[in-house]
Design brief:
Elements (H helix, E strand, L loop, with lengths): L4 E6 L3 H7 L5 H18 L4 E4 L9 H13 L5 E5 L8 H7 L1
Parallel strand pairs: 1-2, 1-3
């Protein structure tokens, strides 16, 4: 099935988040958050792309975020739903509703 909509998960790796937010067990927390949001994206059956700091291009958050969105559009999609790992209450049904 060809979709015209894809999900962009814009989130740093757990290792980078652990360095940027150095509190006890931060890397483990962000690993769980990343795993959780990927699982939610998979449940929608929509194509999804995880763009972490390794793939991000730009000097500011805005540049990196804009370039990540453009990267997904460049794959041929007409719509992009962007999500992060910082919304643990987000459910697959919410993403489906946005779709």
């Amino acid at each position: 099935m060809k979709y015209n909509t894809a999900i962009l998960i814009f989130a740093n790796s757990a290792k980078t988040e652990g360095i940027n937010k150095p509190f006890k067990q931060s890397a483990q927390l962000f690993e769980a958050l990343n795993t959780n949001i990927i699982a939610k994206a998979k449940q929608t059956n929509l194509p999804y792309y995880l763009i972490s700091e390794a793939q991000q291009v730009g000097n500011s958050f805005g540049e990196r975020f804009t370039n990540a969105i453009q990267n997904v559009f460049n794959k041929g999609f007409e719509n992009v739903i962007t999500i992060g790992n910082d919304t643990p209450h987000l459910q697959a049904k919410h993403i489906q509703k946005a779709y």
